[in-house]
Amino acid sequence: MFLKDAILTRCYTILTFLLVSIASFAQLEQTKRLEFEFNNNSEEEYQVIPLSEKGLVLSYSKMEYSKRNYIINYQKYDTTFNKIWETSFRPEEQYEFVKAYHNDGFLFALFKKIGESKIGVLRIDFDSGDKIYNDGDMLTNMDVEQFVVLRSKAIITGTYNDRPVAVLFSFFDKTSKVLPELHANFFDINEIDVNEQTENIYIMLKNQRHCEFILKTYNYDGKLINATQIGDRQQTPVSGKILTLNDKEAILTGSYADGCSQLSKGIYIQHLDQKETQFIKFEDLNNFFKFMSPKREEKIKQRIKNRRQQGKELKLRYRLNLHDIEQTHDGWILIAEVFYPEYKSPSSNAFSTLRPYRMGNEVYNNFRFTHTVICSFDKSGKLIWDNSVSLDELESSELSEKVQISMVDNMFLLAYPDDNMIKTAVMKQGESVKVLERFDLKPSNDAESISDTKTSNLSAWYGHSFIAYGDQTIRKSGAVGIKEVFYINKLTYTVKQTNLKEN
Fold first, then answer.
1. How far is CA 263 from the centre of its chain?
2. Are 399 and 367 in contact, with CB atoms under 8 Å apart?
């Protein structure tokens, strides 16, 4: 009996060791790199648009200081970085680039005449590179804030006399129409979206005086067909993103706060064909505090428990940078970075990278990202699992999506850029992620080194590939001079498992 128990105990110990000691990790490989050297005699800016298996499009704008000559060049590359086509566009005099938008087939660029309401929209076909330009008039000289396209119409929103305005511009007959019931005091346009299947236009409004969040739905002709208030003064949405599930179902989700605050206390889910809104507090998520050390996580959970036993609430409030909602086979995933803004006095060598962002009455130009939150829902809106991963106070001058997620079998590869390196972790739904792998980006050849990374971005591309891109300073070994480049790196990953030895 003793021998049998000993054998069973040993088998159990070996099985437990195997279960807990097998770890998954992602091995990144830099397979391709493009570099474009900056010219000191002109102001240049690059943008990358990933197109999944179709490759990518690079937008390159150039303003020559001496000639005031402004031109935008567009180049398409396949997934092996072979150039497919190239085309250029020179805006009319006094016209400046304002916003860009793209769908699966086309890139749209909005241009506006300085100080006037006249506009032009450039459309570029992703497959052929063919371009069409449509000029028109917005009817009002608004400060443009958002720009989307639905079929052959553009929706342009902004402010005029401190009140919101939305204009529907038709490419077909070059007419414009102001959308009704928007131009009112104390309202801000929070977000706009379109539904390609139903041809509906969604405009989300925030009333800053009465702490109301209102979703207005317009048809393709610009007629208001529905207006719905989401939440109330105690639970007011801060942000909203719409995901179209099919031709009949769509959901609105985002973060919500107390009243008019910009600091979120949780997330909400609203099915557009239903009246009831689901609210989930951050502290009710199973793994919202997993990014912390175990000791700190346990401490804050105990504080929450103690406050609830007293019939009170521990106020946990955060700023969230919400991503577009990702649809999955089983439902959808919400991803957001938690951040706090700050203002930095620009130095002489960093001035061009610091751009002001207005939040309420405050202006910021730098952001620190503390952690990311991932929530997975089924198609009915029921929370399946959640997780959080530390971003180690990641610093950026841009308030943009930092964390990228790619699905691998039943796991998720999480990755984000940090200066001249990419940090990755393999995440299994709600399991804790404490250690991230680090991968250093490399220059084009071994005789060079990266001395500084001014901006770094990362996008999930296709399959097991990411693209990293941004501005870097490159130094050649043994040379005095340096060069400033815009780089694009193709990174391919494989997920491997290894047995961890216990000390």
1. 19
2. yes
Kindly list the distances between the CA atom of residue 436 and the CA atoms of 27, 32, 58, 182, in Å, as whole numbers in the listed order. 11, 23, 30, 46
Q: Which residues contact 323 (CB under 8 A, 6 or more apart)?
A: 241, 334, 335, 336, 401, 403
DSSP 188: E
Whole-angstrom distance, CA of residue 430 vs CA of residue 286: 8
Cα–Cα dist 105/145, whole Å: 23
Quote the radius of gyration of the chain (alpha carbons, Å). 25
Distance CA 142, CA 53 (A): 38
Closest Cα to residue 421, out of 444, 394, 440? 440
pLDDT at 397: 84
Phi, psi for residue 351 in degrees, rounded to 5: -60, -40
Compute CA 81 distance to the chain's CA centroid, rounded to the nearest angstrom: 24
Distance CA 81, CA 55 (A): 8
CB-side exposure of 147: number of CA atoms within 13 Å?
22
Q: What is the pLDDT of residues 260-305, one digit of tens each?
A: 999 999 999 999 989 899 999 999 999 999 999 999 999 999 999 9
β-strand partners of 71: 62
d(CA 25, CA 29): 13
Q: Which residue has the tokens 């179209």?
A: 244
CA pair distance 347, 433, nearest whole angstrom? 36
**pLDDT tens, 366-387?**
899 999 999 999 988 999 999 9
Phi, psi of 265, deg, nearest 5: -115, -5
Distance of alpha carbon 232 from alpha carbon 255, whole angstroms: 13
Nearest to 271 by CA among 243, 296, 306: 243
Q: Do the strands 404-408 and 411-418 form a parallel or antiparallel pair, or are they unpaired? A: antiparallel
Q: What dihedral angle (degrees, nearest 10) is formed by the CA atoms of 87, 192, 201, 117?
A: -60
Gap between the Cα atoms of 293 and 345, Å rounded? 33
3-state secondary structure of 397: coil
Low-confidence ranges of the chain (pLDDT < 70): 1-25, 66-67, 345-356, 358-361, 434, 497-503
This prediction has a pTM of 0.89
Distances (CA, A) of 482 to 202, 473, 476: 48, 7, 7
Within 8 A by CB and 6+ apart from 415, the residues are 26, 403, 404, 405, 406, 422, 423, 424, 425, 458, 460, 466
Separation between Cα atoms, residue 107 and residue 104, nearest integer Å = 9
DSSP conformation letters of 452-465: EEEEEEEEEEETTE
- What is the CB neighbour count within 10 angstroms for residue 365? 19
> Which token pair is 329?
């086979």
Q: How far is CA 157 from CA 49, 138, 191, in A?
A: 23, 10, 9
The identity of residue 382, as a single letter, is K
